[in-house]
Amino acid sequence: MPALPSFTRRRLLPRVAALAAVAAFPVARLAGGQSRTLEPTPPDAEGPFYPTRIPAEADANLMQVTGRSARASGTPLSLTGRVLRVDGQPLAKARVELWQCDVNGHYHHVGRSGDGSDENFQGYGVVETDAQGRFSFLTIRPVPYGGRPPHLHFKLAHAGARPLTTQLYPKGESAERFTGFGLSGRDARSRLEFAMNTGREPNTLEASYDFVLRTA
User: Fold this and answer.
1) SS3 call for 190
2) CATH code for the part of the protein at 43-213
3) Residue spans per domain, the chain
């Protein structure tokens, strides 16, 4: 079995364990009593802070920038999951992009900077799923900024599925009253929430989420 995507050039947490989802994993159901299907992950707005071009450093460890000795500020988050088809089959070699603001509420991407940015935070990462459809990132727990609840941005692409742009919110913090970005319905927001779990490493959180893509 191929290994999970590696965090090259850095010393990372020793394990990347797929955790059971508490409330965010897609729920299986029977379609017409014939076949098992999963509900596709709903889309959400891309937002104004997607990179204007992909930065040179875009690996799965957003907590440290090459050449800098300090790690990013914020609570470390080990995020794992899978990318699946609606029939439950894993999608190998799916491209998963993640971007978010730093602990000070600043996004890090070419063409935009701001006073108070955490220069030790990478801000953007991209990985490819393994043969079991698995992915993993090391980042920080998302924080609120500019009136928005904490969230993570994602783009997913695969040759055999429709592309998806969406956002994830920590469980209980999606604040459905914020309707100016993407989907405004309460149900759509709740379907994107994921649970935060205390990890075995001190002061580290773990979370897991399965994305489900519609077939092309």
Assistant:
1) helix
2) 2.60.130.10
3) 43-213
